[in-house]
Amino acid sequence: MSKVLILSGGSQGIGYATVKRFLAEGYRVINLSRRAIDLVGAEHIGVDMQKRDWLDNCIHELEAVVKAADSVVLLHNAARHDGDTVRDLSAENFAEVLQVNLIAPQQLNSRLIPWMKAGSAILYMGSTLSEKAVAGCASYIASKHGVVGLMRATTQDLVGLGIHTACICPGFTDTAMLRGNLGDDPAVMAAITGMVSYGRLIDPAEIVETLYFCANNPVINGSVLHANLGQIER
Q1: DSSP alpha helices (H): ranges in the chain?
Q2: What range defines the domain where residue 54 resides?
Q3: Does 164 map to a domain?
Q4: For 96-124, what is each residue's pLDDT tens digit?
């Protein structure tokens, strides 16, 4: 059986760990990102999703892969996370974030869904901020709320096709992006882990196990799964 994973943003963090897991399970893996991936067996197509025409140079290659596959997992993982507020977020910057986080996934959907067979899955990477908000990242929050809406629309629009979907919302995961945002201050790290019932960051492999389960279990169709070790609400 020919199984394919097509994902965006697989060169680091959760995406990178996902590529390793799916390769080990016998999937052909195609990564879409600006940065190349250094895993043996993974295929890379260099794209810049910030550009509206990013898909033009690779869509025929992707369509050929999907047409030949028995099943496809399409994982919308890439995201842009800016620091901004509703007081200073410009229309231009807002549009750029929406392009990466929301429009690019739909560009892929519209071109690949017609060729995806029953048994395939479309997975969206959400966030803790897909269903709540904090100060200082307005564009990211708005886009991740939109991702949940797009996933739910996917569920309704694909009824009867045998393609299932879900939105996985990780909590504080131990990635280079998170540590880059937090810095090296132990007090900041303690504050973050103090918001988690287990008192630690999530290992990317834990999110990957959730993704793999969702990819192979249509019973979760239309679900929003919060994979966050239980965040403490204050």
Answers
A1: 13-24, 59-68, 91-98, 104-112, 138-157, 176-182, 186-193, 204-215
A2: 3-171+203-227
A3: yes
A4: 999 999 999 999 999 999 999 999 999 99
